Amino acid sequence: MTETADDLSAPLGQDKPRRKRRLRLPFTAMQLLAALLGLFLVTFAGFATFNKDPLGGEPMTRIAIREPKATDEKPAVSGQESKPEGKHETREAPKQAAPGEQKTVTMIDGSTGARHDVVIGADAADKGEAASAPPPVMAGIDPKLLEKSRYGMIPVVAGDLKPFNVYAADADRAKAAKMPVVAIVIGGLGVGAAKTTDAIMKLPPAVTLAFTPYGADPGKLAERARAQRHEIFLQIPMEPYDFPDNDPGPQTLLTSLSPDQNMDRLYWHLSRMQGYAGLANFMGARFIATEPAMQPIIREAAKRGLGFFDDGSSPRSIAPQAAASASMPFGKGDIAIDVVPTPTEIDRALNKLESTARERGVAVGTASALPVSIERVSAWTKTLGDRGILLVPLTTAMLKSKSS
Minimal CA–CA distance to 336: which of 395, 294, 377, 307? Predict the structure, then answer.
């Protein structure tokens, strides 16, 4: 009875154990994650701002080269042991250098997201040659117009002979001087054998083809193009404004490099094939607008008897003035035909190119080797002569521009 009374008189909840207080942080897990992410971004931005990298993040390979130790020993005669005098030394036999491995570099176009796989050092691997072996000389190339560099054969002037004149495609220049002319340059070839072959075989010979120095064997494709009477130009990868996010590829000419370094890279590109009448920029809006970087390249091209074609993508380009000072053949693209790669827009651009030719006497259009571009350009050129306009190779258009 007493226990029951005590229970009834006791305040409610007095006999219940007290709850332990939980430790609460002054921030949530999401706030902590956001703070850590912000700290990482600030650290990365500081590194990118204050770290000086003249190559702009361009991929590099470092190779350790060990200088062989000098030895006074004479080589052993076959079938006999060598007996060095004095102190006996144990020497390891030199290891034979392994042949170069096949490497594939993926180029990503920052504006379109397009990916292109470029095989580097693969030419020699399948042939059992050293990876550093220079590309073979193409058929139909005048040996007098070549000289040896450390990368292979590159163009040179021989007396009155210049590559620009020797490798220019045939054209009726007397007729071109009297009527409006149009030149078409299809660029980005060499990477992708299928699209390159389509451009070679489906486009008329008067269309000029511009090759990049990349691909497993760009020289073989360029050789095929010349066999089909196409004139060819070599595109030189140059630094764009958004490099390295938009990377033209290995051995790109950069404004951060010295003239000697860029010249060495230029020689590598020049050696990848032969038979081209001139050079053209491959991307390169920043480089082609930077006079200290661009001037030596133009002078070197002029010295080697080449022309230069500016695709017209950079409004700040100093190439026209540099080419004029070097007295070299020069051309500039007027209209990019397949910026919008649809049949309707390509036809509209071709009509504009035709109007430009009538107004100025000469016009140059540029395009890539997209199937729709090849199809529309091929159809357009078939009736161009009926409309009083002559389709000519780029070199003919360049000479007409210079004379006028």
Answer: 377
Phi/psi of residue 20, each to 5°?
-75, 135
CA distance 247 to 113: 11
pTM recorded for the entire structure: 0.70
Confidence bin at 122 (pLDDT 50/70/90): very low
| Bridge partners, 108 (sequence order) | 115
Work out the burial of residue 193: count CB atoms within 10 Å of its CB; fewer than 13 is exposed, 13-18 middle, 19 or more buried: middle
- What CATH architecture is 143-403? Alpha-Beta Barrel (3.20)
Sequence spans of domains, the chain = 143-403
Q: What is the DSSP-derived secondary structure letter of residue 89?
A: -
pLDDT digits (tens, 9 = 90+) for 194-209: 999 999 999 999 999 9
Going by DSSP bridges, is the β-strand pair 103-108/330-332 parallel, antiparallel, or unpaired? unpaired
Residues whose CB falls within 8 Å of the CB of residue 101, separated by 6 or more in sequence, listed in order: 121, 125, 131
Q: Mapping DSSP to helix (H, G, I), strand (E, B) and coil, where does residue 69 land? A: coil
Please list, residue by residue across 216-230, b when 16 or more beta carbons sit within 10 angstroms of its beta carbon and e when fewer do. Answer: bbbbbbbbbbbeeeb
Q: What is the mean pLDDT of residues 125-145?
A: 66
How far is Cα 211 from Cα 377, in angstroms, rounded to an integer? 18
User: Which residue, among 237, 112, 196, has the nearest Cα to 369 in the 3D structure?
Assistant: 196
